[in-house]
Queue: 4 jobs
Job 1
Amino acid sequence: MAETVTYRSSCPLASALDIVGDKWSLIVLRGFFVGYSRYGDFLKGPESIATNILADRLKSLECAGLIERTSREARAGYRLTRKGADLLPVLQEMARWGFEHIAERWQPPAWFMKAKPKDFYPKSK
Amino acid sequence: MAETVTYRSSCPLASALDIVGDKWSLIVLRGFFVGYSRYGDFLKGPESIATNILADRLKSLECAGLIERTSREARAGYRLTRKGADLLPVLQEMARWGFEHIAERWQPPAWFMKAKPKDFYPKSK
DNA sequence: CCTCCTACTTGCGTAATGCAAGTAATCCTA
DNA sequence: TAGGATTACTTGCATTACGCAAGTAGGAGG
């Protein structure tokens, strides 16, 4: 796994994709918005992510500053940072699009579509 | 290249990612919103996409119904369908996030941030 | 102490991406 | 209208990401 992100250009969209532009990162992020916080929670999601991919994604999201560990010890959980929580609108628009344009998708819950990034900011410390 | 999309789950977000969840699809889409329409246009973008990847992405986006060829002949251009144009909000939110959270990114142009998918719908026929 | 559970790592095969070169059908100029 | 330039790709091969199955390490409970 790469330790540092290398950007293809200075385009904000392209750079965002250099961080989350893969098959799994945004799925893992989605987990945080529905209340997941520990490794095992994500494994139980409906897409059945492989254990090595999950470990890898958690590391890269932490490395990119979108999530952080709740403690230094083993068996710690993870939580969103502001940077990570601020991706919520992207997930919302993507979910809206998927529901509208792909047949037979689950309807995104209203609470999810109405939520604000601030609702998921880490408790101030 | 796969001819048909296989969905990991019925989650609208996950399914959207099954279509555009890779390093390049949304970058190619971005091109259409800034006026690109032909193969060579996309090659000149700031991220220097490889020719084989571009050909592959154009095929898969067409296959998924996000874009269509302007004619059946060789040397044809491509254009967005409604389904493709409707992804604009996703790109906008991603660009907004990238500009806000990654240092020294280009500021997304105001016209881009204010644009509506309808502005890019194909001419009715 | 011994076993279970959680949180990972490792190994290995397949698929996606990246780079360079090649090709075929136009188009453009002389 | 011949011939080179241009456009729109394809092909081959190396590297990186993903997917599956199995293994390990360390704390928690009994």
Job 2
Amino acid sequence: MQEEAKYWYLHDHQLFSVLSREENRALCLIPNFKTVKKNEIIYFSHDDEQRLYTIKSGTLKIVSVDAEGNETVKEILRSGDLFGQYTFDEVDENEDEYAIAISEKVVICSFKINDFENIVKSNPQLAIRYTKLVGFKLKRITNNYTNLMFKDVRTRFVLFLKDWVMKEGKGQTKDIVVKNYLTHSDIAGLICSTRQTVTMLFNELKNAGLIDYTRSEIIVKDVHQLA
Amino acid sequence: MQEEAKYWYLHDHQLFSVLSREENRALCLIPNFKTVKKNEIIYFSHDDEQRLYTIKSGTLKIVSVDAEGNETVKEILRSGDLFGQYTFDEVDENEDEYAIAISEKVVICSFKINDFENIVKSNPQLAIRYTKLVGFKLKRITNNYTNLMFKDVRTRFVLFLKDWVMKEGKGQTKDIVVKNYLTHSDIAGLICSTRQTVTMLFNELKNAGLIDYTRSEIIVKDVHQLA
DNA sequence: ACAAATAGGTAAGTTAGCTGACAATTCGTG
DNA sequence: CACGAATTGTCAGCTAACTTACCTATTTGT
């Protein structure tokens, strides 16, 4: 990517649009663009220096590994999303997390949180944007979990599917074709259920004529009918 | 409270200790101290002007009311905690929330979001503290929800009890006596379970000799043994 | 092209914890 | 103190969804 283009991407980003060109440079954002290919892994959990990442383009998933080595997909992130040590906190030694690229090409941009902190010092406006972003994330997470807690598996599955398909479908509501990059186990992890139950629910929707799917893609005839 | 005392409270607060006397004044913090008695309600959800609140002393709980009018305790907050529109977000019209004093006397201090935002803009140190605080809150909530999802009710109950008792016990780990201001239903709401199950679990711990409790207080012999 | 690995499909057995119903206790207030 | 309301205690179903187990289809690597 050209320097110019990089600058303008950052300029458009909701978080960084308040930074001057000099501040961008100070943050070392521009030299830290990185392109990763599908299935490439970005470790950010036990990295030597804590970093904050933002996604320029593409899709990736956050996978967490527990003490027994079980891997669970925790989140699906798309362009504009933030991940990494966004709390400025020490990393929790108990859990291990990494990000893995789902789409063919994912462009991310990272910087050290210390640098970020320094920029905040000279540009407090960034702090407000940042808290708004964190607040947004908080809201989304709360929402997600509220669904998880109070609804049954079927409802959770349908809500997840709806959300997924709508995000990928960029606003469309009918005849959306989504590349099926998640396994049944992945989905089970995301909605806190089991592989078998997810399989069952997929087939249920298929038999009801609401969706059509193969291993490589999912076709939803009408998003609104899912509910 | 005397003006002086108010100033020093703010001066000690992790968030506001970086403010000069002039900034404090600009924030209009000092005129906005308020004392509420037990069971008094602080509405902050549909207030005409958005406010951020911090607790000087006492304990209160955040209660949310859903569309059907069911009330659920969402959070227990203590001195130093923040509540209200701390993410600078718009209020969600769909849900109604209020805070209600649990302890005999709760002193809170509030100010308008806009004023706060302005101070943040001109005080980088405050900006950093604030981003850390909000980030920390995000982490805590995420953690809470993760527990809710992946652990069984017994574990959730014990984790909750441990956390509660340790917060009230101010660091002590043995023979902590906690004023029991939560009903079994309240606790059930917090750990996403039912009244009956909470009753059962309380009695289980009691019979196991790990705790002792009446309607008015809970005595935990050794916090570490709970796990 | 084949074996090995991974993903999807189906079913019977099991269980944590929810529901509902009701009794016992405690609290609050005239 | 006495009555009604709120809270706590107990128990017998019930059921959604998890386990375990096994089999088939598809993908991947060499």
Job 3
Amino acid sequence: MLSKKTRYALKALVVLGKNFGEAPIQISRIASEEHIPKKFLEQILLDLRNAGLLFSKKGSGGGYGLVKDPSQISVVQILRITGGPVALLPCVSLNFYQKCDECENETTCGVRDVFVEVRDATVKILSETSIADVIRREKNLVEKFGL
Amino acid sequence: MLSKKTRYALKALVVLGKNFGEAPIQISRIASEEHIPKKFLEQILLDLRNAGLLFSKKGSGGGYGLVKDPSQISVVQILRITGGPVALLPCVSLNFYQKCDECENETTCGVRDVFVEVRDATVKILSETSIADVIRREKNLVEKFGL
DNA sequence: AAAAAAGTCTACTAAATCTATATGCTTTGT
DNA sequence: ACAAAGCATATAGATTTAGTAGACTTTTTT
């Protein structure tokens, strides 16, 4: 399962993506629109900024904005920044690898082999999907099912 | 990430699968072979038994065994019994659905839409893969990379 | 019949992680 | 100077997970 942190990050980036190119948006606005605790969101946006995804502006009229086009930010990137585990096993994770301490010889582990396949399928989808795609999907869904 | 419980369950079922049709295997043997805390494994095997996957026999010469052929037990089944989350979002889970409390209209959520796709890909792989397949993979890996 | 070998069941504790809040600070615009 | 915003770190609270303990039941062996 993704953490709340990751989920909030995704939601926030979608909001910012819709607003790309315009004036920065305040944390408090995103927080209230998306029902995210403001202080928690602060930390999250800070992480995303420190990772180079967002710019920020202090003072009146300040806020956050995307540094690059939403089509250039993949969902998998966001999971990684916010520490969301993509792989279902630590020994299979590309970015947060850890030995499974119960497992002797990893290279011949059949269970691991299956979850490598799962990881590949997941990474494929999430790296091919950008924030812009998420926004597009949302639009399609609204058209399909009405607001 | 899968819980240790789920991982231990998978490991144990592989051992039992290799032994299908023969005399039952003792918890303590699986525990020491697979480096799993014995008491913890007890609970796990009990769950798997209560779910109808294993039979057990008490007393000397007792132990656990698979009820059906390892080709008839899918990996996804095991995750579900041991409570391992297949979906990455609660609002996307087929068997453990929960509303994302920050999300207003689920039907038009673009993030959700993406993770439905991820879930489908994952479920496909894990439901098409049986314990027998895991054993087969292990065998292939051993041949490929040596013991 | 007694003892030993194994699984059954429930409760509890400890550790880790996640979520959220608090507090004070810095920068920027008016 | 003041207010509006973000920056940074610390800490508390809640939840979940992992593991342990102990007493009980069934079956086999002696």
Job 4
Amino acid sequence: MKRVSIKDVALKAGVSIASVSYVLNNKINSRIPQETIDKVKLAAEELNYRPNNIAKSLKTQRTHIIGLVVADIANPYFSQLARIIEDEANQLGYTLLIGSSDENVEKFEALINMFADRQADGLIIAPVENSEKCLLKLQKQKIPFVLIDRYIPEIEADSIQINNHDISQKVTEHLIKEGFKNILLVAYKTELQHLLERTQGFVNGLKKHQLQINDNQILLVDKDYIDRDIYKGLDTTLNTSQRPDAVFFTSNKLAVSGLKKLTQLGLNIPNDIAVAAFDETEAYELFPIPLTFVKQPLLNIGTIAVQMLHKKINTKTTPLQNVILHAELHIGISSKKRLP
Amino acid sequence: MKRVSIKDVALKAGVSIASVSYVLNNKINSRIPQETIDKVKLAAEELNYRPNNIAKSLKTQRTHIIGLVVADIANPYFSQLARIIEDEANQLGYTLLIGSSDENVEKFEALINMFADRQADGLIIAPVENSEKCLLKLQKQKIPFVLIDRYIPEIEADSIQINNHDISQKVTEHLIKEGFKNILLVAYKTELQHLLERTQGFVNGLKKHQLQINDNQILLVDKDYIDRDIYKGLDTTLNTSQRPDAVFFTSNKLAVSGLKKLTQLGLNIPNDIAVAAFDETEAYELFPIPLTFVKQPLLNIGTIAVQMLHKKINTKTTPLQNVILHAELHIGISSKKRLP
DNA sequence: TCACTTTGCTTAAACGTTTAATCGAAATAA
DNA sequence: TTATTTCGATTAAACGTTTAAGCAAAGTGA
């Protein structure tokens, strides 16, 4: 039982395949009378015709596919974002292809190549470290893309970011205003710009309030050994004379790992140690007390990303756009100073 | 700057396009001498030739695309599973297309149609309620698929399930053995077979131990109003004379919502009320005490699903397979009887 | 009436592959 | 030498569309 093609419809309607194509695509320069239109549509209906997208794509050079490259689709941050992007993409007639890079350049490049080979109309990308050449190649190939979550200073590309520096400084100042003197920052060992900005925001927050920064006030964590590094780091730092009275985790995964450890240590939050975290995840909801966290505007990030990409796909020359969205600080109990 | 095609390679290598195709696909009936092979490969390399998958698909009727239909990619259960499936699919040379149905038949059917229109080689499907006709249609179209997580008794299809009934009965009996007398089951208001089996396992667990089941011992929740129904349900049931001393949540979302509520009510777990949950999610890790939960073999579900599908795609006549995998009961503190 | 435009529709090339069929030259066999 | 086989490669059709170009018939204006 073969698929029914435009040819079969043409035969049944008693017209040429060109006419069928024109009718079915509404490419009617007012040269096709209603009668023919009806004939064709009826035939298509009766044969239950479904257009062959592959043939269509071969001819039109459009696939109506958008590729999404995230670090890990199993990470709630990215899966929530992916869901938003999926909906918006479908809305605009695209199908979404998703790939996880694991923060690994080789995998990243393989994904990009795969999407390029599949001739995705455009890409939404959370770039990894050292992906500059790969992105440059993409630009050379004239495949439209927009960067999300992260951005690469060396690359002039459309992007959607959040105010990483400012919101981090805000978190820091919030903790300072609450009266915490010795805040520990837990961050990734990374060169990713958006994460460096979070650290910089922290540093500038301290500076602004004339607080000195000592060396072990920033705990750097290897992304591949989060639990190990955080457990060890917290163990040692909590035993120093300069024991921190607050911790600021700069990602959801760091926060989850850190909170587990603090709980295991039997520390009361915020009485023994205050906590602020980045991102929002279901996990925070089960923490015994409401957490203070930075809420990213995921809905905006996702929908704007798709819309920007859509525009780029359809009009070759769009001016470069670097959108900066604002994250919100949600203040819970975890960052409240204990009453003396 | 046009894409380089097989034609360009042929020209550069000084051979016909057929030869190029044969060489590049290793379709060599030992009729092509090494010299030509080298020539072609060199030319392809130098021109940086990338095959056009669309043209390839048009000709071969294979897309090397697998479609995955889940209820919601933002649900950790599905995003974890999706990640596993993505990796295994890539391993076998497929690209993964993901769609979320929101447990809605119309969206479900739209997704299936979209994947069919894109001529996915096969589908991995978590079917929704009332999707029978849609799945039958898929069978008629001879598109290979395997069902995961759920299954539809009316449809004879390949599937991968877990032992929902038995593991639920095991959870129930575990609670009974711990000494809990009045266990509340929190379940979805649904006809989905795998969820009914969880309830049935609970009922049979009680029966086996000669415990009677009274009406308000099962709290049915509308999936679209989880928080509302659970909050109200727990409020009322906790105020009855037959106050439950343990709760068994039959999904991760139900558990997260319920645990939030129990915490808000200031109840101590397990001293005031014991808890067991289904599925595994990051959120459980931040709950103050280790939870008792049912751990599904996600890695096996995902990899076996892809492998089964792969086999079905490549050999038209594979016997129907209904794999049943075993979930594990992880016993934490949340289901421990308080010492009297 | 004739020239020209409009209308309605068709023809045919093209998109980039795969692959069966074919073909000439060289090698082997008779 | 001639017939046959093998080797190495090519030709051309096909996959299912889109779309520029073309064409016959009808309509219009002078």
